[in-house]
């Protein structure tokens, strides 16, 4: 009886682990945004939205948008991108800003949308993500 119980527990554990591994996204993409040009920003956000809506990628992709240099414009409260960014974030997109850019341009975090995350270096973030196997996209 103990052997059967042990086997059932082992089977349940393996089944749960298999089910959890099936939920793990298969694809990871990091987008770079380093331009303050409105067309570039909007195209980048649209490209991310298009990737999320691709039926082959739905529920199978993690996307991170790394802004640095001029790209900080997209995350500033005084620019018109909040609703577009919130829509992407609601779909799981990680929105990340380079702290080096903030320091160099004397921009405080209070000037950015409160839902933004931070990395010490935008370039460092891109290097690390690529080394981890993330697809790199620079629209």
Indicate the proportion of strand residues: 15-25%
**Largest beta sheet: strand ordering:** 4-3-2-1-5
Shape: globular
The total beta strand count reads: 5
- Secondary-structure element series: HEHEHEHEHE
Determine the N-to-C terminus distance.
Answer: 61 Å
Residue runs with pLDDT of under 50 for 5 or more positions: 5-10
Question: What do these coordinates show?
Answer:
This protein is α/β, with parallel strands linked by helices and 139 residues long. Helices cover 46% and strands 18% of the residues. The protein is built from 5 helices and 5 strands; from the N terminus they run αβαβαβαβαβ. Strand 3, helix 4 (99-105) and strand 4 form a beta-alpha-beta unit. The longest helix has 22 residues, at 2-23. The radius of gyration is 19 Å and the shape is globular.
């Amino acid at each position: 009886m103990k052997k059967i119980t042990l086997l059932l527990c082992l089977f349940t554990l393996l089944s749960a682990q298999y089910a959890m591994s099936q939920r793990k996204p298969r694809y990871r993409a990091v987008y770079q945004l380093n331009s303050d040009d409105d067309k570039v920003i909007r195209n980048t956000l649209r490209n991310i939205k298009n990737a999320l809506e691709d039926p082959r990628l739905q529920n199978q992709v993690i996307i991170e948008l790394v802004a640095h240099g001029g790209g900080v414009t997209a995350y500033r409260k005084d620019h018109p991108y909040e609703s577009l960014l919130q829509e992407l974030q609601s779909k799981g997109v990680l929105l990340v800003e380079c702290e080096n850019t903030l320091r160099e341009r004397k921009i405080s975090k209070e000037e950015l949308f409160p839902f933004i995350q931070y990395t010490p270096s935008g370039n460092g973030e891109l290097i690390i993500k690529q080394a981890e196997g993330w697809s790199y996209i620079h629209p």
